[in-house]
Design brief:
Layout lengths: L2 H6 L1 E5 L7 H8 L5 E5 L15 E6 L2 H11 L3 E2 L2 E2 L1 E4 L20 H7 L3 H13 L23
Antiparallel strand pairs: 1-3, 1-6, 2-3, 4-5
Length: 153
């Protein structure tokens, strides 16, 4: 299964109580389809007693099963809390976008989006050759405008 297909078949479950385990999540979401994986990220903060971070990802074998789980479990009560269930978003790459350490114009995504094809470049060169070697001077006719007041006659 490709990464994009996996994320389409994965649901985000938020607002979980601290008592929730992967087994209880699996049992709650199995009625909607075959589950491939349940991920309950552990809490890395040593100052809290919570075992997990309050959210989980449930990956189904089929994207239709994920949609069914969203329709049925969003805003449901689970371990005394109302949970939020939605389609999972693919994580952003550390090498792409504005938060990356690579300049945006050196990133593959930016280059693919903003690259000028050789055909377009040749068409621009031809249009410039037909219109003259150089466009008119934009400062032409602006002499004397730096002086305030009426124009002398």
């Amino acid at each position: 299964m490709t990464d994009s297909a996996r994320w389409k078949a994965t649901v985000y479950v938020g607002g979980l109580a601290s008592l929730v385990t992967t087994t209880s999540l699996h049992d709650a979401f199995i009625p909607f389809g075959e589950i491939a994986d349940v991920s309950l990220p552990k809490n890395e903060n040593p100052k809290t007693t919570d075992l997990h971070r309050g959210f989980a990802y449930v990956e189904y074998e089929d994207a239709e099963d994920a949609k069914e789980a969203i329709d049925n479990m969003d805003q449901a009560e689970f371990f005394g809390r109302v949970i939020k269930v939605s389609a999972a978003k693919a994580p952003k790459s550390a090498d792409e976008g504005l938060g990356s350490k690579t300049a945006v114009w050196q990133q593959e995504g930016w280059l693919a989006e903003n690259a000028v094809s050789e055909e377009d470049r040749m068409a621009g060169d031809q249009a410039q050759a037909v219109g003259g070697a150089r466009p008119g001077d934009p400062m032409q006719g602006l002499e004397g405008l730096d002086v305030a007041g009426p124009k002398p006659e």
